[in-house]
Specification:
CATH class: Alpha Beta
CATH architecture: 3-Layer(aba) Sandwich
Strand content: 15-25%
Largest sheet: 7 strands, parallel
Order of helices and strands: EHEHEHEHEHEHHHE
Low-confidence stretches: none
CATH topology: Rossmann fold
Mean pLDDT: 95
Strand order of the largest sheet: 3-2-1-4-5-6-7
Helix content: 40-55%
CATH superfamily: NAD(P)-binding Rossmann-like Domain
Number of domains: 1
Amino acid sequence: MRLKGKTAIVTGGASGFGEGIARRFADEGAAVVIADIDEARAVTVADAIAGRSGKAHAAVCDVTVSGDIAHLVDETLSSFGAVDIVVNNAGMPQVNGPMLDVDEETFDRIFAVNVKSIYLMTRHILPVMRQIGGGVIINTASTAALRPRPGLAWYNASKGAVVTLTKSMAVELAPERIRVNALCPVAGATPMLAAFMGGAVTNEMQQKFIATIPMGRLSTPRDMANAALYLASDEADFITGVCLEVDGGRCI
């Protein structure tokens, strides 16, 4: 088991990519905290992991609220005694459309969920990782940061910030044996897909989107989970500052 004895927090862990990562980490021996704003769904995922003899705990958390993050870290320490891995996966999409159709409140929320959440998590988790002499942070960026699609200007920008932040954190924290990497997925069949496509997901729209991906399909939670597992494992102990494209060739 590649994560045996490790404890991981996965934000946005109750659905989509986050759920896939949480389940995969648990299968590989990690104790996992599923942090999500949707308590009922987080409990369902945690129960499912426990039902497979894994270790999991559900925690309610709004990643844009410092107090929630502080409580999440304390809750994790109380439940499992350590935090070795953090996956900053919680995210907010932008409904595809003209950039000026996005109001200020929505803009602020996009950046709060996608960018400020990493700032808040870092403030609360760094003292813990420094105390144990290292750790792993994985941020969820996007192909939108590397090859932006039209109609998603503010979302693209928020994920661009995640890429730069990941590299900045990596170079600053490397001497402390805290590795920081990012995943850059192409869109997948998650609750965010409809927003990226600007409405209901029709077969025609989906096929048009898939046509832009050389390997001919959307990403899956399993794809993201496998990539996250490698970056979180000791096999990647010399890997930091990498923004890994999990995109079937989309960014080529």
